[in-house]
């Protein structure tokens, strides 16, 4: 059953505190966290767990890199604003 490891806890490198596996398997819009294999592979057979409970498409979506991080988006917006300000001055 998909809840079998839910009560296990681990220190989350992103949050800096303990989280239960239930969080890790649902945090990504209901799908597992992108880091789920790295974080959990030494605790139980996470790859087998993913294969058993998720489709290939779901696993690919879950583990894919995000298009952009929030920081990248903010940096791009600041650069755009700077450019348009410089163009106004000309
Ligand atoms: S799998 Fe994701 S949410 Fe879970 S501990 Fe690792 S980084 Fe944190």
Summarize the structure in short.
This protein is mainly alpha-helical and 90 residues long.
Q: Any key phrases for this structure?
A:
90 residues, two-stranded antiparallel sheet, 2 strands, elongated, binds iron/sulfur cluster
Q: What report would you give on this structure?
A:
By secondary structure, this protein is mainly alpha-helical. It has a domain at 9-64. The protein has five helices and two strands. It has a two-stranded antiparallel ribbon with strand order 1-2. The chain is elongated, with a radius of gyration of 19 Å. It starts with 8 loop residues before the first strand and ends with a helix. The structure holds iron/sulfur cluster (SF4).
Q: Give the DSSP E fraction (strand runs of 2 or more residues).
A: 5-15%
Class from secondary-structure proportions: mainly alpha
* Morphology: elongated
- Determine the oligomeric state from the structure: single chain
Number of helices: 5
Strand tally:
2
The molecules bound to the chains, other than polymers, are: iron/sulfur cluster
Any chance you could write out the topology, listing elements then pairs?
Elements: E1 9-11, E2 18-20, H1 21-26, H2 36-40, H3 46-53, H4 56-63, H5 70-89
Antiparallel strand pairs: 1-2
This protein binds iron/sulfur cluster (SF4).
Residues 10, 12-14, 19, 23-24, 27, 33, 35-36, 39 line the site of iron/sulfur cluster.
């Amino acid at each position: 059953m998909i809840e079998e490891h839910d009560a296990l806890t681990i220190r989350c490198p992103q949050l800096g505190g303990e989280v239960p596996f239930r969080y890790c398997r649902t945090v990504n819009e209901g799908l597992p966290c992108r880091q789920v294999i790295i974080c959990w592979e030494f605790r139980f057979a996470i790859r087998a767990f993913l294969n058993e409970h998720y489709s290939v498409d779901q696993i690919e979506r879950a583990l894919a890199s995000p298009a952009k991080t929030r920081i990248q988006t903010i940096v791009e917006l600041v650069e755009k604003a700077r450019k348009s300000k410089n163009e106004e001055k000309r």
